[in-house]
Amino acid sequence: MKEQVLDYSLVPAGLVIMVIYHLFLLHRIVKHPTSTVVGINAINRRIWVLAMMEDISKYGVLAVQTLRNNIMASTVLASTAIMLSSIIVVLMRPSNGNNGGGNNNQGSTGVALEVVMGDRSRLASSIKFFCILVCFLLAFLLNIQSIRHYSHASVLINVPYKKLHSPYLSGEYVAGIVNRGNYFWSLGLRAFYFSFPLLLWIFGPLPMFLSCISLVILLYFLDFTFEFGEVGDTSSSLSTGEDVEQGSRSVGLVQTLVSSRNFTENAGRN
Hints:
Elements: H1 2-31, H2 37-54, H3 56-92, H4 122-156, H5 161-164, H6 171-201, H7 205-223, H8 242-269
């Protein structure tokens, strides 16, 4: 009974710490995006898309190649997730050995777990493996959605929308698709992060709880940035507003640099 108390107390506490941190991160992304790495990257990706679509003849190949690299990254994570899910399914199968499952130091997988602290019952082992399986399947689905958005953006980014004057296509729309693809990729990677404490849960609730605390501390330094302060922080700056204005300025800067380079090349030839 004492071993089960550890599972009933430390495991929920570790999960609550993870959930509270990600709720806090979500609040900062929505309200103060320039204080988070996700918000800064979203603004920079929007600027990049606007710059690439300003001159498709020069930057079209670069844009498609960059999106293809992102597709490959999502494909690797999706393949890894589905492979690990298959392994977890195999481990969840009950053992058909001669011991008949009578050994208390063995879970439903038939693997000796003498080092395990906490609940060692077959039900507990099944719950642990099932939670890990859900994490990997969720990572697979999120990365598939990321591939979907990146593939769609690779088609639209080479469309000369300024010549077509279509009300259904703009640089901001394509930038939104690219950002959504990256959001799904980030969530898929976050599902892999969640799997680490669950994997350590196999060895007991204490390693799982300590890994949750360590992971939150590590993610804090990876998710937040203090280089840009909170200039221009608004709840809508990820979709419209100052980042779009910054994108237009960056596009103008790109045009100026290209014009200067062409002028220098022509002067050198003459």
